Description:
The chain is α/β, with parallel strands linked by helices.
Amino acid sequence: MNKLRFYSHMFLCWTLLTMATTLAAQSTLQQKLQGVAAITEIKPLQSTEFTEKYLTRFTQPLDHKHPEKGSFSQRVIISHVGFDRPTVLVTEGYGAAYALNAKYREEISKLFDANMVFVEYRYFLESTPTPKDWQYLTAENSADDLHAIREALRSLYPGKWIATGISKGGQTTMLYRTFYPDDVDISVPYVAPLCYGVEDGRHEPFIRHISTPADRQKIEEFQLEVLKRKATLLPRFEKYCNEKGYRFNAPIEEILDFCVLEYSFALWQWGTPLTTIPASTADDDAIFAHLLDISEPSYFANGSSEESFFVQAARELGYYGYDTRPFKQYLSITSAKGYLERLMLPAELKGMPFDKTLGRKITKYLKKNDPKMIFIYGENDPWTAAGVTWLKGKQNTHVFIQPGGSHRARIHTMPEATQEKIKSLIRQWLDE
Length: 432
């Protein structure tokens, strides 16, 4: 054997040994993930909650019905406890950045020691196609994304699957179950609205009857106080927005009006204690600071981080309107109607019609079927106005409303007896 052949042989042996060592060091899960054709990247992550955790990227079609239109990369975080354990599929409605945290674990995954597959929604954060062609941001495509991931991981996790999500993620849990009824065994949407229009119409009367008359009056009095102080607060508001670099599609006074209108919805949504509301005698500093704490103007600014959500809300998910009547004499706007399109949509989508097909499809599915689903709502959350609280008389589909609860309603925030009932139902379904 000449020197060249000798060194070539030695190099080949070293390469094979290195490959064997690397493969041995990889976990069984890593090796199996590498066998999934749609996954283009696997990156280990730190976790205090799971034995293994990986950031993966799935290649998804822009349009699942027309794969030739192109593809994008979707961020999916896979957290592992065992191949023999159930799996929770988190149908996030927004970005997945917070799920990268080593301490993060979704509630149901923790309760039932389940694996967790966390899917970032298309057109959010790192799952945004380039270019951002809005025509492919549809509920059906988002359901198809989830189905493709479920199919890719079917053999990896053969046990029971539970889909769950919060708010827009809860809407996604609902629509996913509607489009793919057999993909998962159990669905648990949290605080999930089912709206029927861009300005659905049920939220405003709901807010007019939340809690007690005294509580509602306290909130309205604060809103009026802000409007009455426009002469001193508006210059401060404009300076604040300029310093933040916010740009709007309306005059600054109108944006202040909309922040005041949004205030009551936001306060009830997040369950902010009414004790934090300043008295009408408070100084401008206290009034202004509290308004920003509850209703920050970035919500109405161009290029908002929620732009993709606003597009979907205007296209097919629906949204809410504002009741301007108590404030009319102080408002610079004559009507709040059409504010979503006017203030929050990209210019190229102005005039986009609302499609009622999705809401009707989900409603029809829930009325005609009895899937294993648990809906969780907060009593004082304005989104509950559009909740599926009308579902009654089903054997498998259940609705639970936390007394006095907000958009933060979860299993662990329910009364103890209700918590046990929910956990018992899920445990029973997992054991079947």
